[in-house]
Amino acid sequence: VDRGFFRDLVSGVLREQRVIDRTLDETLAENWHLARLEAVSRAILRAGAYELSHRRDVSVPSTIAAYLDVATSFHDDTEIKFINGALDAVARRLRPDEMKPQAHAR
């Protein structure tokens, strides 16, 4: 475990929580708000959003995969897909240069 990385992650989420929450609320699907989610999902999304916005030394796919691994310990497939979609949307907003173009439904 990289203690410095973990320390930065935890202190960064606490320090930036208002900005992170606003970003997540603006990114989540209409009628979904961070406050509606249970605590573990909120924590996963906050940590993932912080890492996406402040830890550019970690690639987007690595960041999302790490938080999906955490989510699998707590949630079923539906919630994991929701978290994946939310983190993907945050990444598209904060780091669009690293994201592949989104496929459009026909």
Explain this structure.
By secondary structure, the protein is mainly α. It has one domain (3-96): NusB-like (N-utilizing Substance Protein B Homolog, Chain A, Orthogonal Bundle), CATH 1.10.940. Helices cover 68% and strands 0% of the residues. The protein has helices at residues 3-27, 39-54, 60-72, 77-94. Helix 1 packs across helix 2, helix 2 (39-54) runs parallel beside helix 4 and helix 3 (60-72) runs antiparallel to helix 4. The longest helix is centred in the N-terminal third of the chain and has 25 residues, at 3-27. The model has no long low-confidence stretch (mean pLDDT 92).
Can you tag this structure with a few keywords?
68% helix, mainly alpha
Give the SSE map.
Layout: H1 3-27, H2 39-54, H3 60-72, H4 77-94
Question: Quick gist of this model?
Answer:
The chain is mainly α.
Q: Any idea what the radius of gyration is?
A: 13 Å
Mean pLDDT: 92
Per the CATH scheme, the topology name is: N-utilizing Substance Protein B Homolog, Chain A
SS elements, strand count: 0
**Second CATH tier, the architecture:** Orthogonal Bundle
Strand fraction band? Answer: under 5%
Structural class: mainly alpha
**Head-to-tail CA distance between termini:** 44 Å
Percent range for helical residues?
55-70%
What's the tally of helices? 4
The coarse silhouette is: globular
What does the main sheet amount to?
Answer: none
Provide the domain count.
1
CATH class: Mainly Alpha
